[in-house]
Amino acid sequence: MPTKDTTQLTDQQWIDGTVKKMMALDEGLGDEDLKEFVTDLAARPNWRALSPDDAATKAFGELEPPEGR
Predict the structure, then answer these.
(1) Which of 3, 7, 17, 28 would bridge 52 by S-S if both were Cys, CB 3.0 to 4.6 A apart?
(2) Is 41 within 8 Å of 55 (Cβ atoms)?
(3) What are the DSSP calls for the chain, one per residue?
């Protein structure tokens, strides 16, 4: 399967695409919290190398549930 060259995306495009995909996967997620989380991921080369769709899918394993759940 060919991979998308994510270096062609600006950081903001990558962040926006990842946030959009994560919100599509779970409509209960908050936009502002996600942007902060995904912006942190964008600074990590191993995450930034992933496509926004792949990063969003992988990120669900990295999210901590809110307190009280």
Answers:
(1) 17
(2) yes
(3) -----GGGS-HHHHHHHHHHHHHHH-TTS-HHHHHHHHHHHHTSHHHHTS-HHHHHHHHTTTPPPPTT-
- What is this structure's pTM? 0.78
Nearest CA to 5 out of 49, 62, 41, 35 is that of: 49
Compute the distance between CA of residue 50 and CA of residue 18 in angstroms, rounded to an integer.
10
How does residue 2 score in pLDDT terms, banded at 50, 70 and 90?
Answer: very low
Domain ranges of the chain: 8-59
For the stretch 3-58, pLDDT in tens is 566 668 999 999 999 999 999 988 888 888 899 999 999 999 999 999 999 999 99
